[in-house]
Amino acid sequence: MKKHRNLPFFVPFAGCPHRCAFCAQEKITGHKETAESIQAELAAFDSMMANAGDLHTTENQIAFFGGSFTGIPKERMIALLKRANAYLEQGFASSIRISTRPDLIDEEMIAILKQYRVTNVELGVQSMDDEVLRLSGRGHTAAQTRASAALLVNNGFVFGGQMMLGLPGSDEEKELATAKAICDLGAKEARIYPTVVFAGTKLHQMTLQGGYHPMDDVAAAKRTVPCLETFLSRGVKVLKIGLQSSPELANAPYGPTDGSLAELAYGYLYAKEIMALAGERAVNKHLTVCLPRGELSKVTGHRRLVLKELQPVLLPRTLDLREDEALSVPRVKISIEG
User: Fold this and answer.
1) Superfamily of domain 3-258 in the CATH hierarchy
2) Out of 3.40.1260.20, 3.30.750.24, 3.30.365.10, 3.40.30.10, which CATH number does the structure's domain 266-337 have?
3) DSSP of 239-286, one letter per residue?
4) Do 243 and 196 touch, CB atoms closer than 8 A?
5) Which of 92, 102, 104 is nearest to 45 (CA)?
6) Is 283 helix (H, G, I), strand (E, B) or coil?
7) Confidence (pTM)
8) Does the pLDDT at position 133 exceed 80?
9) Phi, psi of 155 (to 5 degrees)
10) Mind listing the pLDDT tens digit for each residue in 282-322?
């Protein structure tokens, strides 16, 4: 079976009518708004495909990221989709993925996406709380998200929901409700993005003025856990937690800037599982914990932050961590002796 691979092409949303409080597109994606001609952009797309390596050994999906794809000028969007379809016809890719805003999906757009063989559509849901959306300057409502998701699911697209944690006016309860709503809307995929404060954004000004209080890495990882747990329990594939590692992310003045935030979040999820299974029975006992294959570092890494949290709670004489190929993420198995 061929390994799946995304072939990402970034399409900056030049002239976006909405400037979200957290938006710093060029710092998140590494790509600035552009006034390039369509032909120049198509040439850049061809170059990306040419430099993608051997496309016959993997199952490839062309992914248009970086902005709201269905909000760019229609001529530009269709030109990119036509070029992508040419690669599909040659057997270099098998499907197309896009990301966009909930208020930029309608019946007409659905027809275009179907025509050009788009299969996966990710919506920037961010929150299902209208007050959070308003305070964040999103420019759309939760009702628009529901309508767009229904259009996508009813027309056979793989719907993915992107959500953010720590937005202005948000809290853990609202975020968990958003994760549950994304599942209820029929999502098959999800991304979780704890809010990072980039210089020059409205959120940066709010932070400096004391009107917004950003999370650090540990707080963001712990706050991710309930949403991550919800998606996994509902069979929704979590594609990404946190922004991609980059110099821009590392230099952000506030917020969770650890490029390995996903590892830490899974670590705290495992800690929650371990504590729930062990309980008071593990106090002063020999505790053996089995994790799925390849997951050990999520508990032992990150400056041993997860282990440090476990130790005072469980107080075992020894904590023996092992891997078990029979386990699936994020399940654990525990044995207690003594």
Assistant:
1) Aldolase class I (3.20.20.70)
2) 3.40.1260.20
3) EEESPPP-HHHHT-SBS---TTHHHHHHHHHHHHHHHHHHGGGGTTSE
4) yes
5) 92
6) coil
7) 0.92
8) yes
9) -105, 10
10) 777 888 999 999 999 999 998 899 999 888 888 777 789 99
